[in-house]
Amino acid sequence: MSDGNGRVLLITGASGGIGEATARHAAAAGYRVVLAARSTEKLESLADEVGGLAVTCDVTEWTDQEAMVERTLAAYGRIDVAFANAGFGGKRGFKADTPELWRAMVLTNVYGVALTIRACMDALVETKGHLILTSSLAGRRSLPGSLYSATKFAVTSMGESARLELNGTGVRVTLIEPGMVDTPFFDEPPVGMLEADDVARAVMFAASQPPHVDVNEILVRPTAQET
Question: pLDDT (tens digit, 9 = 90+) per residue, 192-206?
Answer without folding.
Answer: 789 999 999 999 999
